[in-house]
Prior knowledge:
The structure is a single chain. This protein is of the alpha+beta class. It has one domain (27-189): Hotdog Thioesterase (Thiol Ester Dehydrase, Chain A, Roll), CATH 3.10.129.10. It has four helices and nine strands; from the N terminus they run E-E-E-H-H-E-E-E-E-H-H-E-E. The protein has helices at residues 77-89, 92-95, 160-166, 169-177; strands at 27-28, 49-52, 57-63, 99-108, 117-128, 131-140, 147-157, 184-185, 188-189. The strands form two sheets. The chain has a seven-stranded antiparallel beta sheet with strand order 1-2-3-5-6-7-4, with helices on one face. Strands 8-9 form a two-stranded antiparallel ribbon. Strand 5 (117-128) and strand 6 form a beta hairpin. The site of tetradecanoyl-COA (MYA) has 23 residues, from helix 1, helix 2, strand 4 and strand 7. This is Acyl-coenzyme A thioesterase THEM4.
Amino acid sequence: MTAYRTEIPPDAVAPTRHPDAPAPGFVLPTHYANCFGCGPGQPHGLHMRIVVGEGCDLTATFDVTEDHQGAPGLAHGGLLASALDEILGMLGHLTRMSCVTARLETDFRRPVPVGTRLYLTSRADAVAGRKLYASGQGHLDAPDGPVAVRARALFVQVGLEHFTENGRAAEIDAIGRDPSLITHIGDYTVNP
Ligand SMILES: CCCCCCCCCCCCCC(=O)SCCNC(=O)CCNC(=O)[C@H](O)C(C)(C)COP(=O)(O)OP(=O)(O)OC[C@H]1O[C@@H](n2cnc3c(N)ncnc32)[C@H](O)[C@@H]1OP(=O)(O)O
């Protein structure tokens, strides 16, 4: 297979699981109720259920339905990339870095038929300053099933102003009126 193009720089260090990171087995709540990847407020969203692993890693399942088609009876590739983006971005819960995707490289290795349950994994590979390098993959129908899709990504840590200054005012104001639209875990608030 061809090597990934998101190379980890020499000054990167191993990621550290934050001491107050959610415990292994914890099901991460949606970070934003209207998120396409994990929000219950999106009728056609992916509704991913993401579970914390033992290290800097996560697992999730995603059921591919007729709503997710590209070719007849097959999942749309961009949508599979979205599923990986979501499980990779949620790694920030473990390192306590609120990040946005800067680069997402995806390899589509096998077609994913409607009706498939995709078993997704992600792990933080390295941190260099504000940059978090991560990788993940999706297996067909079983945690050890054939790899259908895999990705490597670079996330960049941002402050709250990234969201408040760039997001549309209507949605930002809605959070002000109803803070439960975004997640609070323990003593921290997850940026949308
Ligand atoms: C508290 C924890 C909560 C966690 C839970 C949250 C759950 C969320 C789940 C959501 C899941 C879904 C998530 C989503 O879908 S997030 C939505 C999709 N992503 C975006 O909208 C991001 C749009 N981009 C930007 O806003 C800016 O470009 C960012 C913020 C990324 C960087 O602009 P900024 O001005 O701030 O910084 P910089 O430009 O100095 O760059 C900084 C460094 O990064 C390097 N670089 C940048 N881009 C690239 C690139 N493409 N390839 C390689 N390298 C790149 C760059 O060279 C530099 O390196 P160095 O010179 O320092 O060495």
